[in-house]
């Protein structure tokens, strides 16, 4: 028992900077996933000791206000709101968060301006940002960002080109002024522990929570996660550098295969002079319009966008959020205990 208590105390000490910053019992964030990270999942994560984050996405200010108020009715614990910096009504969305005393604002989907960062901080909220590279992380800290999330290419949804393993080695030793949370491909608590020991403040999980009982995602969506393997979560492929495709990781299905033929058809029409370059680019981009909602809400797992990280291979059953979080904590504690046993084991004769 004392070994377990000592391990828990060690874990508490390792992620104390993250817990202090978030105001949560555990430094475990929920990734902001469009259509998934809404009131039910966010409140469940925060109530279980983690830190839920609402995905604002393309919401209008009035819709975001509704979601914040509904979430606050379900939890008295801190939670955050993820805002896309390119949203045309970003200032109004920030004002909604501040008016409703949201404790943390996460600025994503682009580089936030110093003015936006100051607006959040002056309004009394903590502000976080994403850093896919060391140089950008340092720049954000200079601009006033109070915490960073570094997300590897193993993550689901829109991803960068570098794995979390490499990002952590590049960034964690070199940015120590603010808490840095790791994300991308995380499915177990002992994995988070390894990054805590490198200097991380905590970990962010998306895929495992998307498949939880409290997630409003369609049952067919969750079942696809339960059946999926790590290798099934693939990045979208770009056929022609003249027509950029934003890299997105999701489960391979009929839509991902059709996207390849769609790109090829559009590029061939452009080559023949049947369509202008700008129109061709729009046709390629519009292929996925509404596809995430089709998968998450309507349950069309073949023709929708099945955004998922490579940790999907570790989703073996649909469990309550509290069970998931408790398991993550237990796995970290058990890893610490195993290490102590190895260190103090008697040498073989």
Task: Give a written overview of the molecule.
Pfam families: NMO. It comes from Bombella intestini. This is 2-nitropropane dioxygenase. GO terms for molecular function: dioxygenase activity; nitronate monooxygenase activity. Keywords: Dioxygenase, Flavoprotein, FMN, Oxidoreductase. The strands form two sheets. Strands 1-9-8-6-5-4-3-2 form an eight-stranded parallel beta sheet, sandwiched between helices. The chain is of the alpha/beta class. Helix content is about 45%, strand content about 10%. Helix 9 (about 190-195) crosses helix 15 and helix 12 packs antiparallel against helix 13. The longest helix is centred in the C-terminal third of the chain and has 23 residues, at about 320-345. The protein has two domains: about 1-215 and about 315-335, Aldolase class I (TIM Barrel, Alpha-Beta Barrel), CATH 3.20.20.70; about 230-310, no CATH class. The protein has helices at about 1-15, 15-20, 40-45, 60-75, 90-100, 115-120, 135-145, 165-170, 190-195, 205-210, 220-225, 255-270, 275-285, 290-295, 320-345; strands at about 30, 55, 80-85, 105-110, 125-130, 145-150, 155-160, 180-185, 200-205, 235, 250. The model has no long low-confidence stretch (mean pLDDT about 95).
């Amino acid at each position: 028992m004392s070994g377990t208590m000592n391990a828990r105390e060690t874990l508490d000490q390792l992620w104390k900077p993250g817990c202090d910053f978030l105001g949560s019992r555990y430094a475990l964030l929920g990734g902001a996933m469009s259509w998934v990270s809404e009131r039910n999942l966010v409140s469940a994560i925060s109530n279980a000791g983690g830190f839920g984050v609402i995905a604002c996405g393309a919401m209008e200010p009035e819709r975001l206000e509704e979601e914040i108020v509904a979430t606050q009715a379900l939890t008295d614990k801190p939670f955050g709101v993820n805002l896309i910096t390119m949203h045309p009504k970003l200032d109004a969305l920030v004002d909604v968060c501040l008016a409703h005393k949201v404790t943390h604002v996460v600025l994503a989907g682009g580089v936030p301006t110093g003015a936006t960062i100051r607006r959040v901080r002056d309004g009394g909220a903590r502000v976080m940002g994403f850093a896919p590279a060391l140089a950008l992380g340092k720049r954000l800290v200079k601009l006033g960002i109070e915490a960073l999330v570094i997300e590897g290419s193993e993550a689901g949804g829109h991803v960068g080109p570098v794995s979390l393993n490499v990002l952590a080695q590049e960034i964690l030793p070199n940015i120590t002024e603010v808490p840095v949370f790791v994300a991308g491909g995380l499915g177990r608590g002992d994995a988070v522990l390894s990054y805590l020991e490198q200097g991380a403040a905590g970990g962010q999980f998306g895929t495992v929570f998307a498949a939880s009982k409290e997630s409003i995602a369609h049952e067919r969506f969750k079942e696809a996660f339960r059946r999926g393997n790590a290798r099934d979560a693939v990045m979208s492929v770009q056929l022609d550098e003249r027509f950029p495709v934003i890299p997105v990781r999701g489960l391979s299905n009929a839509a991902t295969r059709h996207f390849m033929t769609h790109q090829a058809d559009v590029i061939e029409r452009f080559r023949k002079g049947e369509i202008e370059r700008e129109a061709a680019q729009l046709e390629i981009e519009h292929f996925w319009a509404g596809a995430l909602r089709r998968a998450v809400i309507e349950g069309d797992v073949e023709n929708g966008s099945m955004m998922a990280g490579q940790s999907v291979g570790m989703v073996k059953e649909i469990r309550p959020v509290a069970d998931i979080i408790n398991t993550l904590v237990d796995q970290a504690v058990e890893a610490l205990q195993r290490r102590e046993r190895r260190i103090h084991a008697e040498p073989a004769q």
